[in-house]
Amino acid sequence: MAQLQNRVALVTGAGRGIGRAIAEALATEGAAVALAARSASELGEVAAAIASRGGRAHPFAVDLFERAATLELPRKVRDALGPIDILVNNAGIGSSASPGPVTEMNVEYWDKTLELNLTVPMLLSKAVLPEMLRRRWGRIIMVASIAGKVGTFHGAAYSASKHGVLGLMRSLALEVCKDGITINSICPGPVKTVMNDRRIEYDAQRLGVDLAEYEKRLTPIGGRLVPEDISPLAVYLASDSARMVTGQAFNVCGGCVMSS
């Protein structure tokens, strides 16, 4: 039997990249997946792909920069699919949106980064935890970054937000660990996504190096990860098999950060 049968999962940023890969993997394991992102067309493609393989998915086009929409999302998911068992906080804005030194920091960009990368995961976690506590079962997975463990050159807002995500994750894990709920983070390295494409283009240009050669040496293993390198760990953390794993931040980074 699929290990997530009869579970309901909410995945933010599910229209493409890591979020899409995680949503599809959870659906393959039997979960009914709520797909949240801004692009209705991308969500429709993901939902159709999941349905074509016999899975169940429901798209929710939502702008998580809008606080009211964020607060309303969990209720909409419950009404459509039932209580949320698994929350994957994946939606985020990267340093590629406004790279540069802190002395030139765009404060509006700083605020938007912390809102989407840190405040939204807190709000969604706050919203789903009461039902998880009543049922004494739940999984919350934060998609953080190795930038949550080390500094990022010309990426202070992104790195600060991801450091914050790890602090949020560990604090929440302590609060609910006696109640059948686990809370963990996945910390990817450079992954082939639209967001990371823009970042490595910026870095290659800044360093004056060939983009293709730069990409090859981004990780000790070589090259970049793909979204499907991240999703198996998400499935494990969402499953009953990971019942004794909580408060952890797992690097999936091709060897970029070889420490906890």
Explain the overall architecture.
The protein has 260 residues and is of the alpha/beta class. The protein has a single domain (8-191, 229-252), classed as 3-Layer(aba) Sandwich (Rossmann fold). The protein is built from eight helices and seven strands. It has helices spanning 17-28, 40-52, 67-81, 107-135, 156-176, 194-207, 211-216, 231-238, and strands at 8-12, 32-37, 56-61, 86-89, 138-143, 181-188, 249-252. It has a seven-stranded parallel sheet with strand order 3-2-1-4-5-6-7, sandwiched between helices. α1 (17-28) packs across α8, α3 packs parallel to α4 (107-135) and α4 (107-135) packs parallel to α5 (156-176). The longest helix has 29 residues, at 107-135.
Task: Provide key terms for this protein.
alpha/beta, Rossmann fold, 45% helix, 8 helices, 260 residues
Write the layout of secondary structure elements.
Elements: E1 8-12, H1 17-28, E2 32-37, H2 40-52, E3 56-61, H3 67-81, E4 86-89, H4 107-135, E5 138-143, H5 156-176, E6 181-188, H6 194-207, H7 211-216, H8 231-238, E7 249-252
Parallel strand pairs: 1-2, 1-4, 2-3, 4-5, 5-6, 6-7
Stretches with pLDDT under 50, minimum 5 residues: none
- What's the number of extended β-strand segments? 7
- Average residue pLDDT: 97
CATH class: Alpha Beta
Brief account:
By secondary structure, this protein is α/β, with parallel strands linked by helices. It is 45% helix and 15% strand.
